[in-house]
């Protein structure tokens, strides 16, 4: 998929430095810029359909009131998540996308890895296994390039057991309790806010996983991550970061 001598930059929610987050437009622009990996967030509609959205509440990115879970898919599709407070009206309309639309887009970019974050609050509304089954069914055309990620370790265990697919645990805390949980049963990726990692020269936990950090928009920080064996680096500004040549040690 990429040159193993360099880090892999991951588009955090697409390309939100310039385009609305979690939008088909932003994802496509990141891929066109050369991104080899994209991360997206999933919430659930009223009837449990997976849609691209980060927050529980609609207001920040669409200006609408209420939560994503309050509306059926058809109504959500009528809302425009163009981030009016941050980006004005330049990307209006920007319909909230169903996961199926992302799959259709990624089929034109074979080999691009998709990190699919399942938001943990969804499980207050719908059982883990039901939502997981729905997501995995939609992802089938590109399943070989998908990684399911979440703060919720339980849903990742279900994915490991039922689908044998790669999973990544997003750490709430970098502590011994978390380390013990992945030591006893490893995941494929450990994902962490770069600011939560211990300072150099201490190395992050070693194991059969790969490290993935977010959110990095600075070349010196990216090089420091690479020197610690962290290959997957997520960024808000994918276009600018792809222009850097950061060696992976």
Describe the overall structure:
By secondary structure, the chain is of the alpha/beta class. Helix content is 30%, strand content 18%. Helix 6 (128-139) packs across helix 7 (153-163). The protein has one domain (8-241): Alpha-Beta Barrel (TIM Barrel). It has an eight-stranded parallel barrel. 40% of the residues are buried. The two termini are 18 Å apart. The protein has ten helices and nine strands.
Short description:
The protein contains ten helices and nine strands. It is of the alpha/beta class.
Q: How would you sum up the major sheet?
A: 8 strands, parallel, barrel
First CA to last CA: what distance? Answer: 18 Å
The top level CATH class name:
Alpha Beta
Overall number of strands: 9
The count of domains is 1
Named CATH topology = TIM Barrel
Radius of gyration equals 18 Å
Shape: globular
Strand content: 15-25%
What is the share of helical residues?
A: 25-40%
Strand order of the largest sheet: 1-2-4-5-6-7-8-9
Contiguous low-pLDDT stretches (5 residues minimum) are: none
Number of contiguous helices: 10
Features:
single chain; eight-stranded parallel beta barrel; 249 residues; TIM Barrel; alpha/beta; globular
Map the helices and strands.
Blueprint: E1 8-12, H1 24-32, E2 37-44, E3 50-52, H2 59-62, H3 73-76, H4 84-87, H5 99-106, E4 113-118, H6 128-139, E5 146-150, H7 153-163, E6 167-170, H8 176-184, E7 189-193, E8 210-214, H9 219-227, E9 232-235, H10 238-241
Helix pairs in contact: 6-7
């Amino acid at each position: 998929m990429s040159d193993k001598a360099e880090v892999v930059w991951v588009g955090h929610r697409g390309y939100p430095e310039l385009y609305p987050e979690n939008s088909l437009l932003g994802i496509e622009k990141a891929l066109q810029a050369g991104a080899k990996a994209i991360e997206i967030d999933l919430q659930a509609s009223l009837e449990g359909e997976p849609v691209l959205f980060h927050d529980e509440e609609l207001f920040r990115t669409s200006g609408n009131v209420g939560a994503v879970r309050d509306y059926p898919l058809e109504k959500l599709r009528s809302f425009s998540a163009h981030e009016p407070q941050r980006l004005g009206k330049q990307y209006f309309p920007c319909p909230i996308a169903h996961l199926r639309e992302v799959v259709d887009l990624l089929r034109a970019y074979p080999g691009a890895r998709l990190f699919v974050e399942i938001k943990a609050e969804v499980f207050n509304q719908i059982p883990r296994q039901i939502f997981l089954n729905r997501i995995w069914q939609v992802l089938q055309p590109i399943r070989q390039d998908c990684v399911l990620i979440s703060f919720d370790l339980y849903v990742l265990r279900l994915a490991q057991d039922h689908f044998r697919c790669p999973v990544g645990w997003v750490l709430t805390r970098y502590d011994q309790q978390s380390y013990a949980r992945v030591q006893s049963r490893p995941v494929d990726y450990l994902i962490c806010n770069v600011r939560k990692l211990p300072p150099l020269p201490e190395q992050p936990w070693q194991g059969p996983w790969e490290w993935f950090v977010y959110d990095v928009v600075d070349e010196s920080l990216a090089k420091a991550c690479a020197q610690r064996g962290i290959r997957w680096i997520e960024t808000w500004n994918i276009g600018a970061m792809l222009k850097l040549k950061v060696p992976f040690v």
